Structure formats: structure tokens, C-alpha cells
Amino acid sequence: MSSHGRSDAYVHGYSAREHARLVDQAATLTELLHHDTRYPPDARVLEAGCGVGAQTVALARNSPGARFTSIDVSPQSLEVARARARAESVENVAFQQADIFELPFPEESFDHVFVCFVLEHLPRPGEALARLRSRLKPGGTLTVIEGDHGSTFFHPDDADAHRAIDCLVTLQARAGGNALIGRQLFPLLAQAGMRDVKVSPRMVYVDSSRPAWVEGFTRNTFTAMVEGVGEHALAAGLVDAATWASGMAGLRRAAEPDGVFCYTFFKGVGVK
Amino acid sequence: MSSHGRSDAYVHGYSAREHARLVDQAATLTELLHHDTRYPPDARVLEAGCGVGAQTVALARNSPGARFTSIDVSPQSLEVARARARAESVENVAFQQADIFELPFPEESFDHVFVCFVLEHLPRPGEALARLRSRLKPGGTLTVIEGDHGSTFFHPDDADAHRAIDCLVTLQARAGGNALIGRQLFPLLAQAGMRDVKVSPRMVYVDSSRPAWVEGFTRNTFTAMVEGVGEHALAAGLVDAATWASGMAGLRRAAEPDGVFCYTFFKGVGVK
Fold it and tell me: How does pLDDT run across A97-156, given as a tens digit for each residue?
């Protein structure tokens, strides 16, 4: 671990080397999720719910000849996404403010549609898919990628860590979302009228032979995400402070040299 | 599903067609778990805990030039394994009654060791691995495959189904085993002194686009296995009858056309 650990040389947050490594790390997750999404030249592709553009650059780079329209409901997020695309010299993406439930495009106007980490936040994911499908040309594909917090397990097992994760699931449900949506992609796509639906799990398996994943995924992605809702979970009375602290310690324990951490994303593709 | 369902034509158990399909099904799981285990010609390989030979035929067929010694502590199981190998015309396996904790072989007498679905039943899996390692020549590999019942999740989610699975985990723990051992292969192999340990998860993902897996894995393997401990779990007071029935209904529900079922096996390989 030492060659990947924090060095004494940096004080203000991450060193340049650390930052480069975390970017590599993100690229590895990008590879796991996106490597098999490639659109042909001149394809018109709608990315629905691009947020701050976390997936947009990878998506556009993997299909340099395709033309992307990346929409989000938040103008603030779009500003970040635009700046990010500009910084990365990505030129085949047009950003546009739009709501998935009120799409400002004619029916059958896109060759393909791509949705990543969006359905988990929507109260009516099936309706969103049906609306997106209507904008697809016949024969076009609809690709959906989602995580599933209920797929999480680790060694050593820890009941309080599972309770902490359950808080995240409960809070997301109260906000109208569904943190267990990954496992549902097959029925969601099928019920939205897509055919030839194929879903493939993408498990992130992390042990200490993969130190970049221990740091980049177990600690700085998943554990940080759970930790981030701590105050909210405590304020909502979902958990007491001692259990929460114990749960967070349990998650950190899984990132130790003899620990193991598993999380599964799902990718589903259907044809109209 | 109808083309894969039971036909009216058979009354006494499975029809020939059904049987052929289940064999295909097992072959598919065999492929998932064993396709990347290939030993060179003349390699001496110890299969420790072969049981009734469920893995032995696939193992021996994948490495026709290697010479296997398949041991089990149970003479009755070995008789079944021998008959199975004979029926399949497998000729590169010698069966022998032996205990993993009292191996009747000199140190460093095998080129490779293979262990599948054995550690989950042992009270001291680490000690078993250490003993097996001692019989390995330097540079040889130790391959371990185990499931992990805690990796199970499904759609629709069902708390009683999880309770039923937990009964299986509890009963296995009371019998001295560990049904959550799959996730632990990395630390177990590392602590046994193996180096270059690589663990890969093998997720069985089942939705109704894979009807052979719905029938062969979700229903006839996993659900049947849980159902099989029902009387024991009830007698031990781990669960009440209503919860158990509800849990079993929940598992069967995941095999319906809009259901999804996920289970993960782990394969670990280390070098001496």
C-alpha cells in the first residue's frame, strides 16, 4: 500500500501525483461501465440527465464521430458540464437545458439514447423510459446504467455498516428515488416496451491487491458517499450516533489490507 | 418460458428433454466457474474434497493431459464420484479416501491444488489451506472456488426471503462452516502464505431472458437449496412457519418473468 498511500510531501489536500492516480481510478471505473458503448459516425445520441458531465466526456470520446445532445434539468450542472467538456476539448456534444418528462424534441428524433445514474433519482423511472423511448427511432438502442446499494457486501461483515447503508437507501426513497434500482433494469426496460433487452452486471471487486480501487472506490467513492449522509440520517432519526460511528468504522475496516469490498453496477440495453 | 417449461408428457420426475436441459445448465455454470482452469500435460494435480465428483469431470476434461488425484473423506461420496467418472469415460483421475487435515502425501508432491465448495464446510479453512500448500511444489498454484450466500439479492426485494437465506447461513455456521466464505478468499489465501493472489467474482445474473438459468439456477439450485433446510430451520426455532413460507414465496417470485436473481461465486488463485 505504501507506494499508493499519501506522502508526507503534501499538505493542502491531494498532491498532483495523488490527483493523477484518482483520475486514473475514475478512468478504470469508466472503462468498466462504458467500454462497450460505441456509437457509429453521424449517429444522433441523446444523453438524458448528464448532470455535471461526469460520464459525458468518456461517452463522447468513445464515439468521436457521433453527435451527442446532453440534457439536464439543472442549468448550474450544465454549466459545469460545459466547462468540463471544453477543458477536455470535446467537440461532439451540444448541451441543452431540458426535463426528461418534457422533452423538447420531436418523436423518433434520436438514433440512440443513453441514461446513467439518473433513474435512481426519479419517482417514475418507468415513465421516464417510456418518454425517452418515444424519442428513439425504430431500431435504436436505449442504454441505462445504474448502481444498486443493496448489492454491497464486504469482509469483515458488519451489521452496523449495513445499517448505515440502509440509511442511504431510506433517505433516497424518501426523496422519491430508489437506490436498489440496478437490479430492476431488465423489467423496467421490458415494461417500457424495449425488446431484446440485455442486462449485464459490472461488479467492482476490491481487495488490497488493487490499492487504487481501495482508495478510489471503497474509501473515496462508496464510504465517502455513505459518510456524506450521516448528519441527515441522524437528524431524521434513522440511526443513533453510536451505531452510525460503528457502521462507518466497519466500512473503513473493509479497506484494510485483509478487507474485501464488493459493489455491483448494472448496464441494460434494449432495442426499439 | 413455455418452451422451457415442464411438458405434460412426463410423469415420473424429469423427461429426457428436461434432463438434457439441466445438464446443459450445469455445463453453463461449469463454464462460468471452471473455463479458465487449465493444467499442462503431465501436471500432477490434487483435487481436495471432490465429494461426489460434481466438479471432477469438468476439471479432468479441461486438462486431459494432467493427472488428477481426487480425494474425499467420505468413502460413500467417492463411490459415486468413481461411478460418475467411469460413466463419462474420464481416465486421468485417481480417487482416494483421505482427510484434508491428514494428507497421505509427501510435502511438495503436487504441481497444483484445486479446492471447490469445500472450505465453506470446514471449521478451520485457513489451516486446511496451509496444509494443502505444504503439499504444493514451489511455483505451483492453489485454486479455490466458493459461493457466498450473503451476495444474494433479487427483485422484487423481500425481507422474508433474506430471513430464509439467513437461516441457511446460521445453520451452516452452527455446523462449523461459513456460508459467507466466498468474499474471504483473498485474505484466506494470503494468510496461508500464497503469493500473487488473484480473486475474481463470478456473478450469476438471472432474468427471464435466460430461461435456462431461471429454471436451472434460481429455482432448481438456489431456491431448492434454501427450501431443503426448511424443516431444520423451523425445528431449530430460527424462523416461524409463516415467515418461512413467505420467504420461500419471495424467492419463487424472483423467478417470475419480471423477476431478477443475483448470486456471486468467487475464484481465487495463489502461487506458492
Answer: 999 999 999 999 999 999 999 999 999 999 999 999 999 999 999 999 999 999 999 999
Any B CB within 8 A of A154 CB: yes
Kindly determine whether residue A153 and residue B157, on different chains, have CB atoms separated by under 8 Å.
no
Supply φ then ψ for residue B138, to 5 degrees. -55, 135
Count Cβ atoms below 10 Å from residue B271 Cβ, excluding itself.
Answer: 15
Residues facing B93 on adjacent strands: B68
Could you report the predicted ipTM of this complex, rounded to two decimals? 0.89
- Note the pTM of the prediction, 2 decimals: 0.90
CA distances from A173 to A121, A167, A221, A223, B121 (A): 9, 10, 20, 19, 39
Question: From the CA of A186, how many Å to the nearest CA of chain B?
Answer: 7
Helix (H) or strand (E) holding A150: strand A136-155
Yes or no, beta carbons of A191 and B258 under 8 Å apart: yes
- For B184-214, write each residue's pLDDT tens digit: 999 999 999 999 999 999 999 999 999 999 9
Which single residue is written with the C-alpha cell 450466500? B149
A244 CB contacts (<8 Å, ≥6 apart)?
Answer: A160, A164, A167, A230, A233, A234
Does the distance separating the beta carbons of B153 and A151 come in below 8 Å? yes
CA–CA distance, A107 with A137 (Å, rounded to integer): 8
